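A.,

Following up on our hallway conversation. Structure tokens first:
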């Protein structure tokens, strides 16, 4: 599949213009291993190092869609891997927005710093995803790894009226879930079953 075909497929799935434009601008081939670059625009997950993967584009688009990212927001991705999703987020939030990535695997964190060197509004941390960042609270939090439940250490970093999206379930199947914080309480807004993410590394 070529990039144009992937973009057409995402358009046919009904994703909004900001998400489509982000996928048009970001070169996925820059975030995958050289031996997989010919497959960069297939709508599939591809292997990274340390048994991690870069998620399939349609799954990322869906997560970003239910995350409801807006311009100028402060967004955290936990399990940011090679940095591809952060690049897409950067395109959506614009120059005045700020994106932060936490990646526990040092090799991946180092790779993503290199991959994202042209993005001035992205900061990467090589940390455990449950560690609180000084930049908290965040308008949006995306967890790109499977959890049985979202730890309070992460929920506590979400701002009022903020949204967090995570794949919640067993190691074998998860439900992509969006949760909004209102008046200090967390309410599930959307649940989409049928996903398999790499497991959250604690």
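Then the amino acids I'd put at each of the 202 positions:
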């Amino acid at each position: 599949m070529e990039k144009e075909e992937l973009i057409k497929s995402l358009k046919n799935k009904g994703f909004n213009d900001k998400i489509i434009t982000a996928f048009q601008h970001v070169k996925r081939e820059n975030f995958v291993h050289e031996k997989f670059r010919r497959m960069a625009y297939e709508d599939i997950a591809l292997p990274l190092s340390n048994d991690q993967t870069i998620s399939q584009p349609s799954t990322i688009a869906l997560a970003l869609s239910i995350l409801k990212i807006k311009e100028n927001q402060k967004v955290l991705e936990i399990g940011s891997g090679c940095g591809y999703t952060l690049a897409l987020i950067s395109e959506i939030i614009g120059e005045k927005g700020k994106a932060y990535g936490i990646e526990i695997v040092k090799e991946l964190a180092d790779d993503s710093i290199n991959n994202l060197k042209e993005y001035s509004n992205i900061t990467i941390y090589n940390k455990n995803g449950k560690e609180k960042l000084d930049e908290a609270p965040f308008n949006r939090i995306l967890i790109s790894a499977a959890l049985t439940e979202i730890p309070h250490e992460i929920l506590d970093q979400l701002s009022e009226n903020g949204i967090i999206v995570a794949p919640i379930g067993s190691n074998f199947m998860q439900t992509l879930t969006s949760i909004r914080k209102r008046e200090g309480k967390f309410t599930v807004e959307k649940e989409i079953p049928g996903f398999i993410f790499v497991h959250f590394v604690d």
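The radius of gyration is 15 Å. Curious whether your intuition agrees with the design.

B.
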